[in-house]
Design goal:
Number of strands: 0
CATH topology: 434 Repressor (Amino-terminal Domain)
Structural class: mainly alpha
Oligomer: single chain
InterPro entries: Cro/C1-type_HTH, Lambda_DNA-bd_dom_sf
Radius of gyration: 11 Å
Domain HTH cro/C1-type: 18-57
Distance between the termini: 22 Å
CATH architecture: Orthogonal Bundle
Protein name: Helix-turn-helix transcriptional regulator
Helix content: 55-70%
Order of helices and strands: HHHH
CATH class: Mainly Alpha
Pfam family, one: HTH_3
Length: 70
């Protein structure tokens, strides 16, 4: 999976894997409010934040037997 740099694509990929954005944000160490402001167009995230979210999602999707909330 290549790095996702669009919040809608990130959320779509997470949902398709049964993962919530709350889980992705927690794994990435990014406040969910930061992600929401990016998604709503209020802010533009630093490249580091986008990379952390993408890496976190990739890691969560790669985990075997992924269960929501675990």
């Amino acid at each position: 999976m290549s790095a996702i740099t669009d919040p809608v694509e990130l959320e779509t990929a997470a949902k398709s894997g049964g993962i919530s954005m709350k889980e992705v944000c927690l794994e990435a160490g990014v406040a969910q409010s930061t992600y929401c402001r990016w998604k709503n167009g209020s802010t533009s995230p630093r490249l580091e934040v986008v990379q952390r979210l993408s890496v976190a999602l990739t890691g969560l999707l790669a985990r075997p037997n992924q269960e929501a909330g675990v």
